[in-house]
Specification:
GO molecular function: phosphatase activity
Organism: Streptomyces collinus
Helix content: 40-55%
Shape: elongated
Keywords: Hydrolase, Membrane, Transmembrane, Transmembrane helix
Structural class: alpha+beta
Protein name: PPM-type phosphatase domain-containing protein
Strand order of the largest sheet: 1-2-11-10-7-8
CATH topology of the largest domain: Phosphatase 2c, domain 1
Number of strands: 11
InterPro entries: Bact_Sigma-Reg (IPR052016), PPM-type-like_dom_sf (IPR036457), PPM-type_phosphatase-like_dom (IPR001932)
Number of helices: 10
CATH class of the largest domain: Alpha Beta
CATH architecture of the largest domain: 4-Layer Sandwich
């Protein structure tokens, strides 16, 4: 179990390692002082002088890893003091050795100053980047109208919060609408397309009376964005869900992507939703998308997953069996369900290479509130 937790920690993009901007670990801060204290204690305890003074030369460079310029300078000065005070029996270094230690200490202070300024700049840039990315895809509320919802997103590109997948749930005058999709490409290159699609979706929720009209609005957005570049070929797959005001019926439109799984009575049912043309390839010129209406009951949950989930393979090449695993992972809380599936997915495929997106929707019909 501990090895599984370790793999999960390494795969979580929100967890930053020491070399990716996180604060240095405690051992890195303690090591220079511990080494200095250890050398001094060994010399004081030993009846004979020990030839371990060379270890002191490593203390200023070690201090650079975790300390600022002031602390590095203090540790460098202590090293020079220990080398020149008779009580530690290290007071007979050659002049060249002592000058070398002084030079290394001064150089370490300079490097510590540069590292501290760089770390401060990285923290600022990361904070700005996270704020910008969360503005594009803000966290979902726990409840939108009569629908409880939870989204989970893990970007394939490390250090990013937004990639080629997207989802949103919004309430409007025509009910609660939800969307989950995947744009061409992934990583930061797809963020602009994701932002455009989500902006179009949020506007369409307010003034389009049915889900196929919302899909047409998204299709037009991509068509307009790619019109200026004949080689752009922007397209996206998406699933749109439109809940009735009493949350007893959901209408579904699938554009180049499979529909959701319905969790009901301990089973995961694949809804018969026929995908139409992907967004950006001319819905207006093709046949109108097929709208599937599904009656809902209290306790039903709709689970949508991107191809990063359904196409994840284990070491033998077997796809992740989402429909088979989902009933055993079911949880009343939508957030818990998404997290359980993510944990199980990483067990199946520890090295997930694609964006992973899940959207869990738990409608609460009025007679079930």
């Amino acid at each position: 179990m501990s090895s599984v937790r370790g793999r999960l920690a390494r795969r979580d993009p929100d967890r930053r390692g020491w070399l990716r901007g996180a604060p240095p670990p405690g051992w890195a801060r303690v090591l220079p002082s511990a080494l200095l204290a250890g050398v001094c204690a060994a010399e004081l305890i030993s009846p004979e002088p020990l030839d371990i003074g060379f270890l002191l030369g490593a203390i200023p460079p070690l201090a650079v890893l975790a300390h600022g310029p002031v602390a590095t300078a203090v540790l460098g000065a202590l090293v020079v003091v220990v080398l020149t005070v008779p009580v530690f029996k290290l007071d007979d270094p050659g002049s060249t050795d002592l000058l070398t230690v002084c030079f290394v200490s001064v150089l370490s202070v300079l490097l510590s100053y540069v590292r501290s300024r760089r770390d401060a700049q990285l923290v600022t840039e990361r904070t700005v980047a996270e704020a910008a990315q969360r503005a594009v895809v803000p966290p979902l509320p726990e409840r939108v109208g009569a629908v409880r919802c939870a989204g989970l997103y893990r970007a394939a590109q490390r250090g990013t919060l937004v990639g080629g997948d997207f989802f949103d749930v919004r309430a409007g005058p025509y009910g609660v609408r939800a969307v989950m999709g995947d744009v061409q490409g992934h990583g930061l290159s797809a963020v602009a397309t994701v932002a455009a699609l989500l902006g179009a979706f949020r506007e369409a929720v307010l003034d389009q009376p049915d889900p196929e009209a919302v899909a047409a609005r998204l299709d037009r957005r991509l068509a307009v964005d790619s019109a200026g570049d004949p080689h752009a070929e922007l397209f996206a797959t998406a699933v749109l869900l439109d809940f009735s005001a009493d949350a007893r019926i959901v209408r579904i439109v699938a554009c180049g992507q499979a529909g959701p799984l319905l969790l009901r009575d301990g089973r995961a049912v694949e809804l018969d939703v026929e995908p139409c043309t992907p967004l950006g390839l001319g819905l207006a010129e093709a046949a109108p998308p097929r709208v599937v209406s599904v009656p809902l009951r209290a306790g039903d949950r709709l689970f949508l997953a991107s191809d990063g989930v359904t196409e994840a393979r284990d070491a033998s090449g077997a796809f992740y069996p989402l429909a088979e695993r989902l009933p055993g992972l079911a949880a009343e809380d939508p957030v818990a369900l998404a997290e359980r599936v993510w944990t199980d997915l990483v067990r199946h495929c520890p090295d997930v290479q694609d964006d992973v997106t899940m959207l869990v929707l738990a409608p609460r019909p009025r007679d079930g509130l």
